[in-house]
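Page 37, top half.
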Amino acid sequence: MATCPECDADIEVDDFDVDKGDQLSCPECGTNLEVTGLSPIELDIAPDDDDDDDDEEVEDDGLEDADDDATEDEEDEDLDE
């Protein structure tokens, strides 16, 4: 038996069916948890990788827009000549 670090609910975890680094969800509060210890089973709140992906996409989009602006400026210069 393990305890959710978010809501302190008891979570039944099969000792033989989990490995360190596995992720599961708390049935009480829905928090994503990661197995951080095996003997005894210890759980911690799982890192949220989705937020990192969103940040990278925003940064990439900004760079693409800057490239598009530069290309448009170059085309305008070519037309002026």
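Page 37, bottom half:
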Amino acid sequence: MAKLDFTLAIVFGIAAFIGLIVAAFCFRTALRVAGERDGDFKMFLWTVGAMVGLIVAGMSAAYILLPIFFTYSGL
């Protein structure tokens, strides 16, 4: 069972990290596009991308990583 937990922690840890990187990139791009003329729709789409990245990272951490860490930490 420990091998499966380790594999899940690695896979979802990478997914959470990539989600945070995507969110940061999309948020930065949304802020850059916000200064453009008629860039409202582009800003909205980049902001949605940032939210999707944060949701993927948060769900991976909350539902997969934290229970694994709590199980093996003894809390």
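Margin note: Residues 32 and 48 are 15 Å apart (CA to CA).
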